[in-house]
Write a structure and sequence with these properties.
The complex is a heterodimer. Chain A is α/β, with parallel strands linked by helices. Chain A has a single domain, classed as DsrEFH-like (Hypothetical Protein Ychn, Chain: A, 3-Layer(aba) Sandwich), CATH 3.40.1260. Chain A is about 40% helix and about 15% strand. The longest helix of chain A is centred in the first third of the chain and has 16 residues. Chain B has a four-stranded mixed beta sheet, with helices on one face. By secondary structure, chain B is of the alpha+beta class. Classes of the chains: A alpha/beta, B alpha+beta. Chains A and B meet through helix 1 of A and helix 1 of B.
């Protein structure tokens, strides 16, 4: 154990490939990531495809350099994987969660960072969406490729794709 | 009964925060000392004992008060 209480033993690693940006999937990404950290595991959230949106600064739009990446920006609204109801679903889900005292994803993300969870953006997704390092929030790791992510997965006891 | 070194009131918090806050609280006490955790999340009844067992800490007491749950964990 290091001083922060985070294990440095590879067999105590946990990797969550955060592929989805839908709020009902971001929630379990953050819940399991923070819980892994509470177990003293070395947790990496590898944020790829729609999961990268979680690490994007809120004020940054997906502008890209052509009409296709510009179009991605149009889909950059909060949504649910089921019962989305054109965007009303996420608002309902947030309100229900709040009533049940469930921490919103933003608070869980902040807690994850506080606990030393490693947030690793996918370099290839950043290139696809025209996002630069400065378009992403502070306190995260340098962008990784698939090989670096697989290296961590190879050493992790728990690997999840959400 | 050993004295409680620290009490964490996790009332009103839902999964996974009682366990997360328990972790943060136990980091602040010494090995052998007792942390008391109060939770209103029913899931804690399973979560806190499971967490304690897997992290080398010892659950020395668990009290189900119906809507309020109290745990005493000795730091390993």
């Amino acid at each position: 154990m290091s001083e922060s209480g985070v294990s440095t033993k590879p067999e105590d690693g946990m990797v969550i490939v955060c592929w989805s940006g839908e709020i009902d999937k971001v929630w379990p990404q953050m819940i399991l990531g923070t819980t892994g950290a509470a177990y003293g595991m070395d947790v990496t959230l590898f944020c790829t495809f729609w999961g990268l949106f979680t690490l994007k600064r809120p004020e940054v739009g997906i502008t890209g350099d052509n009409w296709m990446t510009k179009m991605l920006g149009a889909f950059n609204n909060e949504r649910l994987s089921h019962l989305n109801f054109g965007g009303a679903g996420p608002k309902m889900m947030r309100s229900i969660a709040d009533r049940h005292k469930v921490a919103p994803p933003e608070e869980l993300l902040a807690t994850a960072m506080e606990l030393g969870v490693r947030l690793a953006p996918c370099q290839m997704t950043m290139d696809l969406m025209g996002l630069k390092r400065e378009d992403l929030i502070d306190g995260i790791e340098e962008p990784l490729g698939a090989a670096a992510a697989v290296s961590r997965m190879q050493n992790a006891k728990i690997n999840l794709f959400i | 009964m050993s004295d409680v070194a620290k009490t964490l009131d996790a009332s009103g918090l839902a999964c996974p925060m009682p366990v997360v806050r328990t972790r943060q609280a136990i980091d602040q006490i010494e090995s052998g000392q007792i942390l008391e955790v109060i939770s209103t999340d029913r899931g804690s009844l399973q979560d806190i004992p499971a967490w304690a067992e897997s992290t080398g800490n010892v659950l020395v007491a668990k009290e189900d008060g119906g809507d309020r749950f109290t745990f005493r964990i000795q730091k390993g």
